[in-house]
Every structure is written in structure tokens, then in C-alpha cells.
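Weekly puzzle thread! Below is a chain. First person to post its structure in C-alpha cell form gets bragging rights.
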Amino acid sequence: MAQYLQSRIEDPIWLEPNEISFLQTRISEEEAFVQTLESRMDELRAQISGLTFQKDTKLVEIALLRNVLAPVRRVPLEILTEIFELSCLPKFNLYDSDLVPDMFMLTSVCAAWRKAAHTTPQLWSTLCISLEKLVLGPEFIWVEDWIIRSQMLPLNLYLNFYIDRYDESLIQRGKQFLEHILTQFSHKVRSLNVIGHPSSFLPILHLSPSSSLLSLEKISLMIYDKEGDIIEDLVALLPTKVTVFLGAPKLQQVELSDASLLEFLALPAEQLTSLKVDEENELDFDSVVPDPVVFADILSRCKQLVNLEIYLPSNGFIGFSTSLLILLPTLRSLKVTCYSAVDNILRCITAPLLGQLHLCYCGTDLDSVVTDMTVFQQRSSTPLSSLKLHISCRAGL
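Winning reply:
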């Protein structure tokens, strides 16, 4: 029988009764031994489980101890919140900033960071929204929580409602978002900066002058209409001149993407310190030919203006007459972009305190430009501290 236990069985086996009894006895003994091993293994598994639990417990204790010893735990709250501000609040390109997702990520790190962030009003005093980067759901509760955390600080809004392909549903969502904010928090808005289709601005422009824009200091309206004509859209949307900004006692800085907006907006010119009209920017806005009288009307009332930037269109503008007389007694910085000598606003303004002059001229009548600058400086009697000239001639002229 021993041969059967040591080699492969290939033929029929014939066993004697005593051999059968022997094999049955061996099987019983081996099964008993296996049961003994399983019992010992169960004991060892229980020990391993207990040891694993102890190890995990100790690892948690170690993590807690390291958490206590972590240098960030000893950083004063003032320094921690300063780090939050430097890392989260955008410095450039605020219209396309990832501020909202960054803040939500920051407050999800741990309870201590969430508490520190929620008690730092500066982190919530700026709100940057881009329709193409951030999905705005039907509920705006998070917006209310965001603004409430800013406490008594004024609010700076940067809303990019520009979309590469016209989408009425997205535009409508942006309007609802803006309307929701202005309905409850218009009194907190210090800086209002919006890019988008003309209809995106309706929640602003349909406010009444008594809408309590008490904190508004700056507006920047960049209207862009890829599918249509800006002036036609404005006429359809704004049958009468908008007077909402006349109710903003602190408004001092105005930036407009198109000179034609001056014909639709009533601005508190007497209190403005900075005015930028049709400034060069990344978007290619449609050119609408403004009337020089529009410029003359508002500039003649800007007696506190310190900074002025005007980008004049290249086609169809009839230019400024030397008979126009505009006194800007406090103007210190002037930037003008024009395409012909008659477009040069230096022909009609007097600025006795002007220190910085930046002229961008694209034309061929350089003699007239030099003459206008000379006459302007003689008329204003001011020594310029900074003069920048960018002069280029268009091809074929």
C-alpha cells in the first residue's frame, strides 16, 4: 500500500480489509489535526484583528499628535487669513477667475480652515462669476451666504456674461443671477463690473435712481453683441435715458466699452474722477460713431476728473472742432487713441494740471497733431511730467 501513497495511481487498486481500516484511521487523524490547525488559525486571526485595531488606534493618535505639532496650527489667525487672501483672491483677470471653486475647496480642507475663512470678511467681499466656467443652478442660496459672510464690507462684483456662442438660456440665467444680487444687496455693491450681451445689463439699467446704490464707487460696462448691432439693441432695450446712476452718491469711476453708451446713460459727471470710454481690450466691440457733442456735454461737467481715457473710432467720426472749449481743471492723466488729426481731443480741452499725456495716433497728418499738442500745452500752461507718443501710419496712406 505504501506504493500507492508515494506515486501517481494509474491502475485499479485492490486493498485488503486491514489496509482499508488503516486508511480510514489515517483520514480521521488528519482531519482532527486540520481542525486543530483551523482552531489555532482562528485564534491567530483574532489576535491579528486585535493587533490591527490597536495599530489603527495608535495611527489615529499619532495623526492627532502630529496635527497638534503641525506648524500651521501655530500660525496666528491673522497670518492664516492673510495667506488665504493671497492664495485665493485674484489679482488679474478677475472676470475669468476661479475664485468661487477655489473658496469652496479651501473651506473643505478642515473645520479649522472653514471657520477661519468664514470669519474673514475680506475673502467674501469679492465675487467673480463667468458663465462659461461656472454652472449657475436654479438656486442662489450660496450667493446669499457668500455675501452675508462679507459682513459690513462693500461688495466687488466681476460678472463675465460673455459667451462665445449665443445661448438665450445662459443669458437668462446670468440676468436672474444679477437681479437676485441687486434685489437684496444693491446697497453693498462698491464695484460693479459686467461683460456681456446688452440684455445682460437690464437688471442694472432698470433699477430706479432711488434703488439705494449707496456704496457704488465704480462701474465697468463692457457690452458685446456678436450676433447683432449694439446700437439697435440698446434702442430696443432702452427707449429712454437710464438715470439709475444718478442715485449713486459715491460713484467716481466709469468705464464704458462703447462711446454710444454715453447717449443712453445719465452719469453724475460732476462727481466723476475717472472716465474711460471705448478703451482697447481683448473683445472686439462693434464700432458705433459717436457725436462729439456727447463728449463735450459730459466732459464740460467733469470738473473733478483726474483720469481720462478715450478710444475714438477709426471710421465715420467727424472729429472735434476747435470752437469747442472744455475746461478740465483737475485732470492729471490723459490717454487718447485717434485715427486722424481732427479726432484729437487736445484741440478743444484745457487741462492746467495735466502731468501725464499718452497719445496713440494712426494717421499721416503729423504736422496738425504736433500743432494741436503745442497749442494745447500753451493754452493749458502746464509742464508735462510724462509724454508718451505712439504714432503709426496705415498702409496705403
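Puzzle host: Confirmed. Bonus trivia for everyone else. The first strand starts at residue 126 and ends at 130.
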